[in-house]
Amino acid sequence: MSLSSVLSADAIDSAIKDCQAPDSFCPKKFFQLCGLSKKSPQDVKKVFGILDNDASGFIEEEELKFFLQRFRPGARVLTDKETKGFLSAADDDSDGKIGAEEFQAMVLS
């Protein structure tokens, strides 16, 4: 399954363009621009599964760095500051990784 089966290519392009500059990525804004925040909890879980590159059940810091590239190959890597900010915003239980429920809560809140 690919992200384009859940989100439109145009919406993904718009979200990627909005955060091209280093340190300009805002997860909440990205989720709104790509349309993910308007999707069902089931669709958000599907997207989580795609972003969980190693299928561990969590999105770890190393996977977060390449978050934008999962949406669009060739997109930039997140900076350390953006990666840590994203992780701290979503990691409710402070275990250093984002679980499916934490991701869903962040996207849909």
UniProtKB/TrEMBL annotation:
Coiled coil, from the record: none
SMART domains, alphabetized: EFh
CDD domains assigned to the protein according to its UniProt record, in alphabetical order: EFh_parvalbumin_beta
Protein origin, superkingdom: Eukaryota
GO molecular function annotations of the record: calcium ion binding
The EF-hand domain, residue ranges: 39-74
Entry annotated with the keyword Protein biosynthesis: no
GO CC, alphabetical: cytoplasm
PANTHER family the UniProt entry points to: ONCOMODULIN-2-RELATED, PARVALBUMIN ALPHA
Protein family per UniProt: Belongs to the parvalbumin family.
Function comment: In muscle, parvalbumin is thought to be involved in relaxation after contraction. It binds two calcium ions.
Protein name per Swiss-Prot or TrEMBL: Parvalbumin
